[in-house]
Design goal:
This protein has helices at 134-148, 152-165, 170-182, 186-199, 204-216, 220-233, 238-252, 257-277, 284-295, 299-312, 319-333; strands spanning 26-34, 44-49, 54-59, 65-71, 75-81, 88-93, 105-112. The protein is α+β, with helices and mostly antiparallel strands and 334 residues long. The two termini are 33 Å apart.
Length: 334
């Protein structure tokens, strides 16, 4: 039987869920550029809850600028589409407390790169389009409004109404699954995801969200497979890279020595890719890298990663635990 490696210094630091509050005074301001630093105008920018359906859509203007307003506290995905360029996804998170009246403005910059004209890269991604009855669409749009307002129960009821009006409504099933996941109703979330996958099995968000549910249920083998499927459909999804890295760490801690290092090395690559795609803003990467370095016995490297996290998130709720972990790592080194 494989043994579970326990790392006491990190017990309090594993944060994979994000709470959503009622404050909706937040704003995301962004800019889209090409790799050569040229601003991109008229690019389509979509806003989603992490792993969820589209909440809003806009187009870049001026010097590649875009804005999303009236947002509740939590984690969002910003996806950019522009003809001739690869789609790009970046994560953005509001960090103040859920009951705070403080208005937070996040500034993001997204770099998009030209598509590679090579058959080996596989077919281009396609948007899933349905002819949805007006009554079902009306329920769905009301549900999205309620979600932006933080009214979860009303939103869930409206999404169920949308599905009752059109049983094969893919985006309604996905949105319902996301909200059920967010409110810890994992079995119901899986049922909704199965319906979404039945309708459209080529959408990476379905596999990504399923992977998140499996992580919450600590089914890491299944989670890793689902996240790998998500990345096969969208290789530029920072969240999928990050969470696959997390699952590989968990699996590595359960493996024998040789396989453990293989999993941890792959996990480190995934974390690096997630960090790059997030514009070096995904601070949880520091915590997970620290886990890897501590497992290898490199306590000083682990301590430095914790310090990097505190620089990025000086007001994090787990800041005291991180400082304690740094002290412990360096005392053990002595």
């Amino acid at each position: 039987m494989k043994k579970l490696m326990i790392l006491p210094a990190l017990t309090l630091l594993l944060l994979t869920a994000h709470a959503y509050g009622q404050n909706n005074n937040n704003t995301i301001r962004g800019k889209v550029r090409a790799a050569n630093n040229t601003p991109i105008n008229n690019a389509i920018v979509e806003l989603r809850e992490s792993g969820g359906p589209m909440l809003s859509q806009t187009a870049t203007r001026g010097d590649g600028d875009f804005t999303f307003t009236n947002l509740v506290q939590g984690e969002y995905e910003i996806e950019v589409h522009f003809a001739g360029y690869e789609s790009s996804i970046q994560l953005a998170r509001f960090n103040h407390g859920p009951r705070s009246s403080f208005q937070e403005v996040l500034h993001v910059e997204i770099i998009i790169r030209p598509k590679i004209d090579d058959l080996a890269t596989g077919p281009p991604a396609t948007n899933f389009v349905q002819d949805v009855p007006k009554s079902a669409r009306a329920f769905y749009e009301k549900a999205m409004t309620r979600l932006r307002e933080g009214k979860s129960e009303e939103a869930v009821g409206l999404l169920r109404e949308a599905i009752a009006a059109f049983n094969d409504y893919f985006h309604a099933h996905l949105a319902l699954a996301n909200e059920l996941y967010r409110t810890s109703k994992y079995s119901e979330a899986i049922e909704s995801l199965e319906q979404a996958r039945r309708i459209n099995d080529r959408e990476g968000a379905v596999y990504y969200l399923f992977g998140l549910v499996m992580i919450k249920q600590r089914k890491f083998v299944v989670a890793e497979y689902a996240l790998r499927q998500a990345l096969s459909l969208n290789a530029n999804h920072a969240g999928a890279h990050f969470h696959r890295g997390l699952t590989l760490i968990e699996l590595g801690f359960r493996d024998e020595k040789l396989q453990r290092e293989t999993d941890l090395a792959e996990a480190e690559k995934e974390l690096d890719r997630a960090f790059e795609l997030s514009g070096n803003r995904l601070s949880e990467v520091y915590l997970q890298r620290a886990r890897i370095y501590e497992s290898r016995g490199n306590r000083e490297a682990a301590a430095r990663e914790f310090e990097n996290f505190l620089k990025a998130e000086p007001n994090a709720k787990n800041a005291a635990a991180v400082r304690e972990a740094i002290t412990k790592l360096r005392s053990e080194k002595q």
